[in-house]
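Researcher: Let's continue the batch. This sequence belongs to Cytochrome c oxidase assembly protein COX15, and it's 462 residues. Same format as the previous ones, please.
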Amino acid sequence: MFGRGAIGSILKRSKEACLIQKLTGRSKTTAFRSSHPSSIAEQQSFKFCNPPVSAHFFRTFRSHLVPKGHHVPFTRNFSKTVSAAAGHKEGLKLLVTGGPRAQKAIGIWLFGSAAWVFSMVILGGLTRLTRSGLSMTDWKFAGEFPPLTDEAWLQEFEKYQQSPEYKRVNRGMKIEEFKFIYWMEYGHRMWGRALGLMFALPYSYFLHKGYITVRLGLRLSVLFGLGAGQGLIGWWMVKSGLEEPATEYSQPRVSPYRLAAHLTSAFAIYCGLFWTALSVVMPEPPAESLAWVRGAAKVKRLALPVSLLVGLTAVSGAFVAGNDAGHAFNTFPKMGDTWIPEDILEMKPLIRNFFENTSTVQLNHRILATATLISVSALWLLTRKLDLHPAVRSVIGGVFGMASLQVTLGISTLLSYVPVSLGTAHQAGALTLLTFMLLLNHTVRKPSLALLKSLPQVVKAH
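Model: Same format as before. Here are the structure tokens for Cytochrome c oxidase assembly protein COX15:
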């Protein structure tokens, strides 16, 4: 087909190109990608040789192989050769087997489950803000049918009339008003049970098909266990609100510790599902050059502490909700007539003030929210001059915009005495901001070794 002299010429010129690139450390073209990788892992991560060498090698090899004026379907055969070489490289460990279709199906299922948990958080906020959570005075793990007759409604209403909330807050409530808060709580509970079925049935199917790896299976089993335990945590929380308050002047409400545990657990389940879904559909971060990888590494060092601060602020918001602290000091930026209330350390022991003292809890949330906005703004400013992938830059912009919106929602909710609409939007905003931070951390993670070895120094300018 072609002589030894042609092959020797090709290899000699390729070695010279490799030597030049090592000396200069630069590249001008993107890497050649195999169109038929030998495995799904290579399909996600493999690029052949260094960019100048691969392009040079391909053009030279083809010019010797195909005479002028002839057209041969060469690319497919060459791709097979490339794929064979790629098999010796370190591949990417995927969470899903079964090909791209299985990967897409499981990704859609996990994103759908995460969206369902997100809706659960919103519905839980509505239930709390409408004071509906204590309307059902008992709980069954498997659920129960709602009252369907007038007699059944009267029985449920009589149970509620024995509760401290009815006696101290809702005395004189009509049965039609009771039906509204009952349906809110019933809907919240049944929506959670429906999520369990929606998660378990596809999970069983994908396991049966063999699409889920051991690593993914263990992770999803833990998330399913947390979801099942969330119902128990919810009832543990509600039960605290059905007990008689410590003094006759106190209104019955759930324990702020238990409410914070319930909300934090929901946030943790959501984060686990969302991160896992991203890992399934995007096993490699967006990285087309070593310069962008280095830029992403710098962003990662900044993004991690900011993410921790966002999470801590969200948890502090749970204690604001648990203590009804949003109904106090409805002014901003001062708290009433002062910057710092005088009673912020009146409880003993001292640590209780940060979880039970209304003044301290709200002040703590204000400080953390302000620190979060400042940190996110600093992240946005410090990364503006970095060489970053456009996707990473877009996510950083989304984080900055969402943090600004969330602070605006928080101030508006406070000044408006916590209306249901704004209070729910503020709670949803906290989870949305956390979503952006998860996406940012996932996007700037380190690529696999196989991908790093194949990347050019810079991306070709178009």
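Researcher: Any comment?
Model: The longest helix spans residues 175-209.
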